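subagent[fold] <- orchestrator: predict structure for attached chain, return tokens only, no commentary.
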Amino acid sequence: MKVVDLPLVFALGDEQLVGLLSAPEGPAHPVAVLVVVGGPQVRAGSHRHFVQLARHLAAQGHAVLRFDVRGMGDSSGTAAGFEHLQDDIAAAVGELLRQRPEVRRVVLWGLCDGASAALLYLQQTHDARIGGLVLLNPWVRSPETLARATLRHYYLQRLKQAGFWRKLFGGSVGAPAVRGWWQNFLTARQRVRDARGGDRLPFAARMAEGWRACPGPILLVLSGDDVTAHEFADHAGRDSHWRGALARPGVRRVDLAGADHTFSNPQTGPQVLALTAAWLRSADGGADL
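subagent[fold] -> orchestrator:
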């Protein structure tokens, strides 16, 4: 299927947002995709991953818009941060539907704090035009989540490795290194305890509300070699706001072993493209959105 890339400039108040719409030359599928770009990131994505995603999905018949939020890339204005992108996302959804009137539902696709921004958008707007979410390594960072993930997925895992003990008792690890490692372990454990007494960052709880507000299916992709993914899984598994959220009907979770935060290696990058396309084709993730 022939793919056409259309540069767009659309207004958000007095500012101009710049994007690129990839779509089939003929009529598009009734489900389109909006790539939500968060953080200090532009519409191409790390190692042009968003470019590859958009063109891959467009070749399957979907219209895909990726754009620079205010203050980033080619868009004007001041960067607002991922917690405050509701107006940017709403403007992009409106432009996507204006360009492709055959579209009936829009899926928000986001990586890291782009995923967080997508959830916060639904929590803030309950936009009926949104039919589903694709979320990769959502950002829930707080002092407790970072300390807990480091403790569980680094220090405790090291204690379970036979190679660690062989090096220790074989004398290849010096006493200063052992003392430093142990001190770091104790520090990480103490940070978990200290963080329990403080206030949680409110955005993670609001993300859970957005998750529950999603009117359609959700695809969650977590990297096996990424602390942000570990933080999210740990937080969603123990925080009261997230209790039962990942088990709700319509949620599909995929853990990609060996994947880094941006799926940069030659194996996992194409896997993400294929997963997204297959999910959109599925009964839960496609025509019934």
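orchestrator: received. Logging for downstream: The radius of gyration is 21 Å. The chain has two domains: 3-142+202-281, 143-196.
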